[in-house]
Structure formats: structure tokens, C-alpha cells
Amino acid sequence: MAKGIGRWSIIALSLAGAIFSLLNAFGLDIACVTQGCKIYSDYSLFGISFYYFGFAAFTGIFILALVYPRFFSSALLAVVIVSALIIDTAFLIYQYLYWPCASCMVVALLLGLIALAALLMLPWLRSWFYYGILLLWFFFFVIVGFAVAKELYLEPWALYGQPDAPVQVFVSPDCPACRELVRQIASDSNVLRQSAFYVISKDDSEREAIAYYLQQIRSGINDHEAFMEIFAGNTPEDVPPMNLTDRIRVASNTMALARMGKASVPLVIAPTVVPVEVVREVQPEVTDPEPDAFLPSPSGGGSSTFNQSMQSIWGGSSERSGSVDFQQGCALFGAPEDCDQEENNQQQ
Questions:
Q1: What is the DSSP letter of 160?
Q2: I need a surface site. Which of 38, 108, 133, 319 has the fewest CB within 10 A?
Q3: How far apart, in Å, are the Cα atoms of 278 and each of 1, 120, 169, 329?
């Protein structure tokens, strides 16, 4: 009875896996909802897409389970399942180190269920070796699964600007360097149009400023004016707190910084990257600045007007007689007085 359940489960799961792999190999991109899917869809071995290898593996499992127990299918089926499980575990580790892939997780899930069903169909597989492979596979399956969920449901939230803007600006309301950076970007309409602002909240006062902004734009106030008010320090005291959804979406911006290994703001990210400053303070003969952000290179892609606008705000021209000094900004988990002290130093 148990062998029959295991066998027919393997037949159904392998058939589903073969169809899924073949359709993706033909370019249907089923469940391709993460960045990793788009990257791995171009991966190949000997010029053959990985999806075709998946199709071959699932088809082999399907045929061997169908003819079981004839033609040494029992031993061959065990070899194919164990080999596929080991290879998939290695690929899960690769996804953990690089990009998680939703469609790859569908393949992994089907393969993991097949490996479990094989314990019913082939009881002699029950060994420490097999259990060890299953546990290692399960460990990385859970980790990569959380990474996929985080990418799908905890994407950074642009409070101002288009999410697909080429320039991403991470700032917080009470950070003096952020305030100056936002002011400089807002002063150039060309750069502003191509920038999206992701606001971080470090404490209750900043959460109140963000809540006030959301309240204003939802009541029909001009979003640009409301956004600039975040950094003006004029938040009323009776602002209703953000709802849970908004809190999570704002927290996703901090999570995005954490995934990039950053722990301070401001941070600017653009398609063509070279280290540049985030807040400009021209000082003659200052050399070897420490980079705090990334902005388009003057020699990189994009329009010359956009690059010139970037240079006009953050410098970078080779014809400048002086160089630019970087301001440190504010740590995400630092004491507020550290930013206040920095602001006093700037004013002096």
C-alpha cells in the first residue's frame, strides 16, 4: 500500500516537474517573479538551458517510476533521485549566495516531495546518508524560500518618485546630510525627475514625519511640497501614527539597506556607478575623499544633460580647481545627538 502511494506520487510529481521545466524552457517564464529567475533563465551548460536538464531529470524519474519494478528501475530510480537531490542542494546553496529564484524553488519543491515519496516506494533508501542529504536540502530550501518571500513582499518603497527611476536615494528625515542632499536634488528638475526617494525611519519622530507626509498626500496636497516638509522639522504633534502596512513598507527600506551591507544614510544608487559624494562642501586641495554613495559616471551611459546635472550637484568635473569633502550622514541605529552634533559642526 505504502509503495503504491509513493510510486503514484512520484509519477504525478515528476510529470508536473517535466511539464513545468519544458514550458519554462520554451520561454513561458512560469512563476518567474524574482530577479534571480530572469538571470538564471539565460544559464546553460554545453549550450543547453538548465530547464532542459530539469525536464530530462523529471522525465527520467517519471519513466522509471512507471516501469517499476522491471528493468532494474528500482536501483536506477534511486540513483537519479539522489543525484538530482544533491545537484539541487548545490543550486540552492548557489541561490543563497547570489540571487534567489522563485521558479527554481518550484522545481526544488517538486523534487523534494519526490525524494520524500521515494522513502515510501523504496524503503531501503532509509539511511543516514539519504536523511543527511534531505536535511541539507531542506535547510537551504527554507533559507532561500525566505529570501524569495522577502524579495516579493518586502521590496523597498519609494515615498516620492517612480519605483523604476534610475537613481535611488535613501534618506531619513532628521539626518542633516540627507536634508541637504534632498535640497540639492530638488533644485535640479532633470535629476529630480529621474530620482526615487526611499525614506528610512530611525525613531518615533521620523515615523511621525513620514506619517504626516502620507496623511497630506492622501488628503490631496501636492506631493512634492509634502515631501519637502518631511525634512523641514515642522511635523505637528497630533499626527496619527502610521498603520501597520505603512510601517512594514517603511521598514522594507531599512531591510533593503541591510541587504546592501549599508548601515547609514544618505545613500544614492544609480545604474552606472562610481564613488561620489552625497553632500557637497567644496574645499580647496582636499584629497582622497571616502565614498558614501554611488552616482552615474560622467563617462557612462545616459544623456549628457543628466550627467552634467549630476556634476552640477555633486561635482565630479575634471576641470574643478578644488575637490569635494564627504559628510558622514547618520547611522541607522546611532543616537540622534550624533546627527545633531554633525549639524552643529556643519553650521560652524
A1: B
A2: 319
A3: 68, 61, 10, 9
Whether the Cβ atoms of residue 21 and residue 50 lie closer than 8 Å to each other: no
First to last CA, the chain: 83
Residue (of 171, 175, 148) closest to 158 by Cα position: 171
- More confident position, 318 or 35: 35
pLDDT at 263: 82
Split at pLDDT 50, 70, 90, the class of 277 is very low
196, 158 Cβ separation under 8 angstroms: yes
How far apart, in Å, are the Cα atoms of 115 and each of 14, 80, 111, 136?
11, 10, 6, 13
C-beta of residue 9 within 8 angstroms of C-beta of residue 117: yes
Q: Which residue has the cell 522639522?
A: 233
- Compare 139 and 339 and report the one with higher pLDDT: 139
Domains and CATH numbers, the chain: 2-153 (1.20.1440), 167-201+251-347 (no CATH)
Residue 17 contacts residue 107 (beta carbons within 8 Å): yes
Closest among 182, 145, 139, 179 to 34, alpha carbons compared: 145
Rounded to the nearest 10 degrees, how much is the dihedral formed by the CA atoms of 119, 124, 129, 134? 0
DSSP 235-284: --TTPPPPPHHHHHHHHHHHHHHHHTT--EE-EEE-SS-EEE-SS--EET
Q: What are phi and psi of 44, to 5 degrees?
A: -150, 160
Going by pLDDT thresholds of 50, 70 and 90, the confidence category of residue 71 is confident
318 within 8 A of 148, measured Cβ to Cβ? no
pLDDT higher for 21 or 282? 21
- What is the spatial distance between Cα 263 and Cα 255, in angstroms, rounded to a whole number? 10
DSSP string, 45-114: ETTEEHHHHHHHHHHHHHHHHHHTTSTTHHHHHHHHHHHHHHHHHHHHHHHHHS---HHHHHHHHHHHHH
Distance CA(16)–CA(110), nearest Å, equals 8
CA-CA distance, 268 to 190, in Å (whole number)? 16
